[in-house]
Amino acid sequence: MTNEQLDEFLAEIGRMPLLTHEEELVLLKAVQENGVECDEMKLLEKANMRFVVSLINQYQNRGLTFEELINVATAGLRMAAEHYDFDADNKFIANAVGLMRKQLEQAIAEKAASDEPNNNELEND
User: Fold this and answer.
1) What are the structural domain ranges in the chain?
2) What is the pLDDT of residue 118?
3) Structure confidence at residue 5 as a pLDDT band (50, 70, 90)
4) DSSP string spanning the chain?
5) What pLDDT sits at residue 30?
6) For the chain, how big is the Rg over CA atoms in Å?
7) Cα separation of 34 and 79, whole Å?
8) The domain over range 3-113 is classified in CATH as 1.20.1640.10
9) By the 8 A CB rule, do 66 and 58 touch?
10) What is the reported pLDDT for 42?
């Protein structure tokens, strides 16, 4: 992603209005009924992308690109939508942050492990 593309992306998500709790609930219900490939999930992702970007800023320079971090965090957001507990009566993003953090930390750990030289290769050199 070029700097220009990044600036455009950040400007676009900055213009996206935040959802009310009631709007979130409607979208979450549709996601749980129709799956994460539905249009409601796309709206939920767009509306929460500024939170995603804010979160991934804490994980930059740890082995994954900005785009990889976005993809991992968005996957966590989708998982959170699929498993949102309507009885919890709290904002969706509050629940999603923990799952997104877990996904990000796991992806970073996996990347670091794959980048380490294999001990057997070192012994054979």
Assistant:
1) 3-113
2) 63
3) confident
4) --HHHHHHHHHHHHHSPPPPHHHHHHHHHHHHHH-TTSHHHHHHHHHHHHHHHHHHGGGTTSSS-HHHHHHHHHHHHHHHHHT--TTS-S-HHHHHHHHHHHHHHHHHHHHHHHHSPPHHHHHH-
5) 98
6) 17
7) 14
8) no
9) no
10) 95
State yes or no: pLDDT of 125 exceeds 90: no
Cα distance between residue 89 and residue 107, in whole Å = 30
Pull the structure tokens for residue 124.
């054979």
- Among 46, 35, 86, smallest CA distance to 70 is for 46
Q: Which amino acid is at 15?
A: R
Write down the pTM of the prediction.
Answer: 0.85
Residue 104 in contact with residue 59, Cβ under 8 Å?
yes
